[in-house]
Amino acid sequence: MMKVRDFMITKVFTIKPSNTVKELLHILNSNRIGGVPVVDDKDHLVGIVSDGDVLRYLSPKPLGVAGLVYIMEDGKFEDVLLAKLDTPVKEIMTKRNILFVSPDEEFEDTIRLLSRHHYKKLPVVNGAGRVVGVLSRGDIIHNLSRKIIS
Description:
The chain is an alpha+beta fold. The protein has helices at 21-31, 51-58, 77-84, 107-117, 137-149, and strands spanning 35-39, 45-50, 62-63, 69-70, 121-125, 131-136.
């Protein structure tokens, strides 16, 4: 029976809650990934943050009838963006109901979980609560092709 450990990526990029959105963007962009687990100083999972979280945070907020007018918060859009880049990740990360899997979980159950919740990636957490891997839809497709089809 296949397990999560057979498909997970163990080179995990993480970020701390105190890191800034700017630092997060650097990690996402330089590693061409769409999200990272947020961990404390002992690598325990405390949240998750995705490129979607960043876009929702940085986008102008609609105001007025049918959202046709946007709040520009005292300044040009570029100035507002620059100011928001200094925001700590803890302000935009998902903190509740974080789905994660164990390295020993059955792979079949994990595929169901990813598809049912429409998540792109799941942190893999060991029994001590530490992030030890990540499982993404792309990794699954890649590994299925390599291990089963080829």
